[in-house]
């Protein structure tokens, strides 16, 4: 049975900051961001937008009533959870009007969680071929004003519908994983922002990639020459490019070809920023919607990395008609976002929901986006669907 990605959607907040403006405000050469990081813009989320609202918007764009009647599992991968107990998937299940007899869960392992969700979805569909599984990778990356990670912040959600006989990509059974107990990026419960050992983290990203890829080659007998493109986790675009170069340094022809595809795969990441669990799948969406070189039957290699650390290498094969499931104007939609100046961005960054003694939100702003946080009553989050 062929199992894989049948549909894929994406949503970003309606605000964006040009990194050239941020660089000037921080008295930094803009090329440090534009060239050094390969990042151009950063999506910015107001307090009425979170992983639930972004995830709902991404999923609503691709789901039909038939899908909602067949979905019996909802998986959210995130490291921006809104509750230490209740899964964001439960909120999303209700907001999306999915039939009630479904399993709804949340998976956490830094930027890797949604990839783990894919394996769980595959196992479920193998057992129940008529089922459909909704996977949502939704995150908001915040590092702090004037911090080293500030220009790599971002926000957004990718939704994927996993089914038998998929319309976009078959997920191949060649997954190889690696786990390392390291402290390269972590977020204690008592900290508002993550703690990062930047140099160590980039080294671990690359070393996990090279060692896992070597094991993948040993287990599968495949090489990079077998793949039309490669999608990697994108904490910032330059990191992904360095990773690709690290495993393809001796084959110039393959490196040049995969580098061309890589630049097509970061078109959206460059103007959205890091969305943690969704970054690799945003890269896939960018590749599929911006490359004219791909064709039916092409294999795509994936490298998913979540700090702490867990990584996975796996592949997928494009199926006939996959382009029919994609958009041609997504970049136009991203370009239509409201552009913030640095003062506006900083005001949104520091804005927090204020609660009274009974746990009710005070003066929560109105938000007319398709899904929004409407209120908090007695510490209970209430979402609105427009």
TrEMBL record:
Enzyme Commission numbers on file: 2.3.3.10
Source species, domain of life: Bacteria
UniProt domain Hydroxymethylglutaryl-coenzyme A synthase N-terminal: residue ranges: 2-165
GO biological process: acetyl-CoA metabolic process
Top enzyme category: transferase
Protein name listed in UniProt: Hydroxymethylglutaryl-CoA synthase
Hydroxymethylglutaryl-coenzyme A synthase C-terminal domain mapped to chain residues: 180-252, 258-344
Keywords (A to Z) from UniProt: Acyltransferase, Transferase
One Gene Ontology molecular-function label: hydroxymethylglutaryl-CoA synthase activity
Plastid in keyword set: no
Lineage: Bacteria, Bacillati, Bacillota, Bacilli, Lactobacillales
Family designation: Belongs to the thiolase-like superfamily. HMG-CoA synthase family.
Residues engaged in binding (3S)-3-hydroxy-3-methylglutaryl-CoA: 29, 143, 242, 274
Residue positions binding substrate: 148
Keyword Acyltransferase: yes
PANTHER family xref list: 3-HYDROXY-3-METHYLGLUTARYL COENZYME A SYNTHASE, HYDROXYMETHYLGLUTARYL-COA SYNTHASE
